[in-house]
Design brief:
The chain is of the alpha/beta class. It has a domain of about 220 residues: TIM Barrel, CATH 3.20.20.70. Helix content is about 40%, strand content about 15%. Strands 1-4-5-8-9-10-11-12 form an eight-stranded parallel β-barrel, surrounded by eight helices. The radius of gyration is 20 Å and the shape is globular. The termini are far apart. The mean pLDDT is about 95. The chain binds zinc ion (ZN).
């Protein structure tokens, strides 16, 4: 059956029909808002390369979390900016550090909110790499010890979920074992399973002050050219016990989100990263694009690719736009 019997435009003829046959919808339920936290009080310091994003203290992060919750957004993911960094990233598992303090504050004020803690060393090491150095390279197995301590520390502070973003081999199994040892059987692991090295995270590194002081992260994060290897990374993390699998960055990896959706039965999360955010913001501020519409289309494309959850800096403004 073909034209003229078939006319695909029939179902696009008016907004009502389009609404009825729309295949993908984004709702606030799908979104996770990233928050950058530091110690102190009353802090709301703008991040220059990420217009609309701020470094927050535990009290202002709690206000932000409450506003997000009221907008229907169920989860936040926390990144810490410590007061002191050292070569072995000890601040990552300091129970009085910014992330445990913020977890505690948010869970006390908005107990139903899902609070996720990013687990990595790069925000806490003076060299800015995602683990413990051995010479000029990151030592995989020594780094696992740090990740285990950090994950347990965040679970103890009340995190519902920990999200390792370091890309060490074996970290999901190591973290699961450590959590279970301390009887955090129900703490969820969302692994950054396929995470790529590249220029995608530039604005984030300004925000978290985590730029590597030498070299790059290509010996542990993936090569953006590799699709099959991404699937191996994801399958490995599933075998090790990851509850949710993440692909990062999102817009550069829509094919991999689709691969994950078709081959895995875990929920799939995608991280709409800082460069994706800042490019839209910069073009929007210049009046070169319809920013609000592009935010809609960005989130919709990631969802259509197969993501169940989207970590996005647009979360709050997008949810607010629904009220207008
Ligand atoms: Zn890292």
């Amino acid at each position: 059956m073909a034209f003229p019997i078939q006319r695909l435009r029939r179902l696009r003829a008016n907004p009502t029909l389009r609404r009825m046959v729309r295949e993908t919808k984004v709702t606030p339920d799908d979104l996770i808002a990233p928050l950058f936290v530091q110690l102190g009080a009353g802090v709301r310091a703008p991040i220059p390369s990420m217009p609309g994003q701020f470094r927050l203290s535990p009290d202002t992060a709690t206000e932000e979390a409450r506003a997000l919750w009221q907008l229907g957004i169920p989860a936040v993911i926390l990144f810490g900016i410590p007061e002191h960094k050292d070569s072995s990233g000890r601040a990552a598992y300091d129970p009085d550090g910014p992330v445990p303090t913020a977890i505690n504050a948010i869970k006390s004020a908005v107990p139903e909110m899902c609070v996720i803690a990013d687990v990595c060393a790069c925000e806490y090491t003076d060299h800015g790499h995602c683990g413990i150095l051995h010479g000029q390279t990151v030592h995989n197995d020594l780094t696992l010890e740090l990740l285990k301590r950090a994950a347990v520390c965040y679970a103890r502070a009340g995190a519902d979920m920990v999200a390792p973003s370091d890309m060490m081999d074996g970290r999901v199994a190591a973290i699961r074992q450590a959590l279970d040892e301390f009887e955090y059987f129900d703490t969820v692991i969302m692994s950054y399973a396929a995470k790529f090295a590249g220029a995608f995270y530039g604005p984030f590194r300004d925000a978290a002050d985590s730029t590597p002081q030498f070299g790059d992260r290509r010996s542990y994060q993936m090569d953006i050219a590799n699709r099959r290897e991404a699937m191996r990374e994801m399958e490995t993390d599933v075998e090790e016990g990851a509850d949710i699998i993440m692909v990062k960055p999102a817009l550069f990896c829509l094919d991999l989100i689709r691969d994950a959706r078709e081959r895995l039965n875990q929920p799939i999360c995608a991280y709409n990263v800082s460069s994706e955010y800042s490019m839209l913001k910069a073009a929007g501020q210049n009046g070169w694009i319809n920013e609000a519409q592009l935010i809609d289309e960005t989130l919709l494309s990631i969802k259509r690719a197969g993501a169940d959850l989207i970590i996005t800096y647009h979360a709050r403004e997008w949810a607010e736009s629904l009220l207008k």
